[in-house]
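User: My advisor, Dr. K., asked me to get a structural model of this assembly before our group meeting. I'm new to this, so sorry if the format is off. These are the inputs:
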Amino acid sequence: MSDTAFTPRIFSGIKPSGGLTLGNYLGAIKRFVASQGGEFETIYCVVDMHAITVWQDPADLRTATREVAAGYLAAGIDPSKSILFNQSRVSAHAELGWLFNCVARVGWMNRMTQFKDKAGKNSENVSLGLYAYPSLMAADILTYHATHVPVGEDQKQHVELTRDIAKKFNHDYKVDFFPETIPVIEGPAMRVMNLRDGTKKMSKSGESDMERINMLDDAATIAKKFKKARTDPEPLPEHYDGLAERPEARNLVNIYAALADVTNEQVIAEFGGEGWGKFKPALADLAVDKLAPISEEMQRLMNDPAEIDRIMEQGAEKARAIAEPILAKTFDIMGFVR
Ligand code: TRP
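Assistant: The format is fine. Below is the predicted structure of the whole assembly, which you can bring to the meeting.
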């Protein structure tokens, strides 16, 4: 295709529907922090308009939006290095989303597996927004001409749809305007599983609070949850392969490795042959060490919502400066008189 040079730019977003967990931290935010200040311009968003694809109580949406913003900040997203804001402050997302609704095909949307999973038997009764959501996600990405999007495996199909929208737009209007964004997929070891059932993803909506670590949990709660995490009766194996059929044990080793910034094999080299009586307290200490300062800072920010809102508005101003000219050019290419 083209060799148009696009500025290397990362965009990613987290939905404020409920609180943040260790899964959001290790799977997303920690990676976002590490990408700052390098070869990429980094844009991180609290995608509040995506949250309302399913019902959100207004007070809960307000709290969750600030909580995700506080989580980003407490974990090390630096507003002087990254653009950090909530989506609804930048109207270009919604406007480009509409334009893309007229580019994307119904047949493409019908193939989205996440919609099928979420709608299930209820597909006649979910919001039209839930169905159109990937087109808004494409607008989030393309209104910044983002070249790379770090996401979990579950979002890969949506980034591919984003590429299809970009290609069809470029083709239909005979331009070379939108980049073909590359999805940067997290490794499977970064998928944090439920502390009570290692075959399920750690989620903010599971029924028991003991199955997840919330980014707002304090030190005592973090330690207690790891000490009570489900395991099996065997000691840790001498090789990482020995965890293949032991999902709970494997999850705790993966979490240890991610928190300590070492490989899974290095964790096994240190703890192979040891029982849980040794490993769990070591994991609890490490987790408290790494996570408690983040939850304390998050709590401090949550007690000062005006400060969070001020930072989000400053980020939104910088976001608009990139998004609005790209949106204006899109309208122009399509023949709008404005
Ligand atoms: N759909 C993503 C999720 O559910 C969130 C999201 C919205 C996003 N817009 C995005 C992620 C743009 C990356 C880029 O997790």
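One thing worth pointing out at the meeting: The chain is about 50% helix and 5% strand.

User: Perfect, thanks a lot.
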